[in-house]
Amino acid sequence: MRLRSHLVVLVLAAVIPLLVFALMIVRQDLAERRDILERGMQDTVHALSRAVDGEVKTSLAVLETLAGAVVLDRGDLQAFHEICVRAIQPRPTAYVTLFDTTGKPLLNSSRVYGVALPNPVAGTQPPGSDSRYPALPLGGGDPVSGVLETGAPVVSDLFISLVTGAPRISFDVPVVRGGAIRYVLEMSVDALEFTQHLRAQRAPADSVLAIVDRKGVAIARTLDPAGRVGRPLAPELAVQVSRAATGSGLGHTVEGMAVYHVYARSPVTGWTMSLSVARSVALAPLTNALAVLAGGAAIAIILGLAGALVLGRRISRPIADLARSADQLAGGRQPRLDVSAVRELEELYRALLAAGEAARNAEDERDRRQLAEAKGAEAQAANRAKDEFLAMLSHELRNPLAAMSAAAHVLRLADPASAQAASARRVIERQTKHMSRLIGDLLDVSRITHGKLALDRERLDLAEVVTRVVNVWRASGRFERHNVSLEVASVWVDADRARLEQITANLLDNALKFTPAGKAVTISVKPRAEMALLSVADEGPGVEPQAAQRIFDLFVQVTPGSEGLGIGLALVKRLSEIHGGSVSVANAGAGRGAVFTVRLAAVAPPSEAAVDVRPTASARRSVLIVDDNEDARHMLAALLRMEGHEVRTAADGGAGLALARDTPPEVALVDIRLPDMDGYEVARRLRAALDGRPVALVALTGFGRAEDQQRALDAGFDAHLVKPVSAERLKHLMAELA
Amino acid sequence: MIILADDDADQRLALKMALELAGYAVRDAAHGGKALALQRERPAAVLITDIFMPESDGLEAIAVFRREFPRTRIVAISGGGQRAKHDYLASARLIGVDATLQKPFEIDELLRLLAELHNPAPPAP
């Protein structure tokens, strides 16, 4: 239900009981008023009745007095006529008549004594004989007969006088002499006299007061007495009057006026006093009260409903606006609301705004805090990873240095030919390779991170590359503590040989690190559905499923306390990816180790003729080494001499160029950083000095960056070697330069 | 006699040779547990141990040595220095080693330290 409907119900709920209550009060009031009116009317009719009765009694008393006159004892009618004339003088319309017992009038006070008088008993005619008074009998014989029959006074009904020809009323008494009725004495009064009595009563306005005789004919009437006296009462009222001696009711007068009617019958005369008050007057208070009440109620209801509608709209519109505001707030916008007339709604609006503001602030604050926390956590994690990395780097570099330092100490003291010296040399070789690989990995990570790693792709048999790495490692004794097996099937890939070796070495390194001594590590290479698969399976603890996601991340070590920098597997992943391949890890089973698998796209093997052009042994060459680092110079020379090459060495550019001019070399290994001139300068001068004679120029640098390599090639070098140079790489290079 | 504990084979080998050239009798162990076993078999006067070893914590071994063989001198070596803000050598000093060395170190330094620390018995017959 809408708010407006609620308010309407509220208004009606307030107004209707009020109306009912008011109605009840009005009803009660009306009943009282009506009561008062009726009492008043009754008082009027009773007063009238008493007045008429008094008049009648007075008349009867006068007659009784006359009837007692002594003159009648002796039958002196003339004297009695005189007495009567005198007695009746004050009432001009009245006269007295004396009848004998047959009903013959003997004298009339209004006539001269002795004149002939009409006999009312004999002369009485049937009703309707006078057109003016159709309901009235003529004469007045009836009361005379009544007196003669009863011997008691009689009051007549209205009749037409035979003497005056007008409506009259008569009072008759017997004149008793000697115990018998000798005469009947009658006083006749003009009916108009009673109208005078009616006028003396203070009847209410718009009312009709009437005296009705026993036959229902009006003796007197305040309204239109000339027309209505002698005619019957209105039928509705006559019916009421015939029912009871006193009472009241509604009806219409003969004029058609709607009236409230009160009547009372006199026990003395048997006549009825009737008072009719116009209903418009009698019920005016009711009508007025009802009209006022109805009007008031209508106004109250209309005002209430209008108020409900207006107020409902005033309340409901801001509420609807507020609802919209809440939506806007939820949407993060600042809502606008026209000021409402309802203070609570205004307060609600302000509260809503404040709540929205607070919610927004809280949200912003939360976002900021979360962001800050996330940033903080990220920074902390990055910091921790960096700390860990630096700590591990320090450890990883210090360990080989410590071993080499000890080995150098041994070499210094031991007989060079002794087994101890040989062991010490092997220690140094291994640790050198280890460190150089470590540093290479670090540089590779840096290059890959900056997207600067260039691949030197060629068509390669993955099985051959992996086999070579495994053989070198086996020869170096790194598999001594483990049972390493190799299962390969030839599959060709388009890849960078050095990077494939790096991938293999890192996977092997990882497997050996986590596999307990005496357990197996299995390396396999096989083709599968257009792919070349390189798998390294170990028998270490395996990889936790949740760690499998992070194990290839940079600087992440999923096994707490393990050695290493956390870059080996990250490099494997990135190197695999820049080859267009992928790497994944799977558990062979709980506690049965992990299997790392690298997938690369397989390519068609090259034609037979192209296969394996690489010579396994190189020819004897004349080699010139220009390097200011004595150790490096001697090591390189020793390696080359072991391969059977003829080697000459120089510590700076000038000495190198002098040697070259003396005897042109076939291969020159030139360090880029020299004390007198840089390697690029040496290369240019060497080319110039040799004057077109073929010479293979190899740059030696401590930097493995692509741009270093490119700069060397631009300066006229044929190849580029990164220090420290491994025997394998050197051997390979010498073969390539053949 | 010296017991040398280090998880790195080359490190162990090179150091053992260097110490032997200096006249010490050296037995080596790849981890702390092995060193403890050797010591229980035949006590040595000096233990040289790497602190950070994956299979058995060097600190743990040092603690057991301190308890069971209070007279044995202990030299702790570490390449880590600080790892995750934790100074292992400091920890080692706290639990009572006689000397600490940070890798890489000169062998002469170690020899000097050994001489100062203790007059180790001449090479065992």
Helical coverage of chain A, percent range: 40-55%
CA-based gyration radius of chain B: 13 Å
The CATH architecture of the domain at 454-610 in chain A can be named as 2-Layer Sandwich
CATH superfamily of the domain at 454-610 in chain A: Histidine kinase-like ATPase, C-terminal domain
Strand order in space, largest sheet of chain B: 2-1-3-4-7
Q: What's the CATH C level of the domain at 454-610 in chain A?
A: Alpha Beta
Quaternary assembly: heterodimer
SS field, number of helical segments of chain A: 20
Structural class of chain B: alpha/beta
Percentage of β-strand residues of chain A: 15-25%
Identify low-pLDDT runs of chain A. Answer: 609-617
Give, in order, the helices and strands of chain B: EHEHEHEEEHEH
SS-derived structural category of chain A: alpha+beta
Q: DSSP helix count of chain B? A: 5
- The total beta strand count of chain A reads 23
How can the largest sheet of chain A be summarized?
A: 7 strands, mixed
Q: Could you give the distance between the termini of chain B?
A: 10 Å
Q: What's the pLDDT, averaged over the residues of chain A?
A: 83
Question: Could you outline the blueprint of secondary structure elements for this entry?
Answer:
The complex is a heterodimer of chains A (738) and B (125).
Chain A: H1 3-67, H2 77-88, E1 95-100, E2 105-108, H3 120-123, H4 141-150, E3 154-155, E4 159-160, E5 167-177, E6 180-190, H5 192-200, E7 207-212, E8 218-221, H6 225-228, H7 235-243, E9 246-252, E10 258-265, E11 272-278, H8 279-282, H9 284-330, H10 343-413, H11 419-449, E12 457-461, H12 462-475, E13 483-488, E14 492-496, H13 497-514, E15 520-528, E16 531-537, H14 545-548, H15 568-578, E17 582-587, E18 594-603, E19 622-626, H16 630-642, E20 646-650, H17 653-662, E21 667-671, H18 679-690, E22 696-701, H19 706-714, E23 719-722, H20 727-736
Parallel strand pairs in A: 13-15, 19-20, 19-21, 21-22, 22-23
Antiparallel strand pairs in A: 1-2, 1-6, 3-5, 4-5, 5-6, 7-8, 7-11, 9-10, 10-11, 12-14, 14-18, 15-16, 16-18, 17-18
Helix pairs in contact in A: 1-9, 9-10, 10-11, 11-15, 12-13, 13-15, 17-18
Chain B: E1 2-5, H1 9-21, E2 26-29, H2 32-41, E3 46-50, H3 58-68, E4 73-78, E5 82-83, E6 86-87, H4 88-94, E7 99-102, H5 107-117
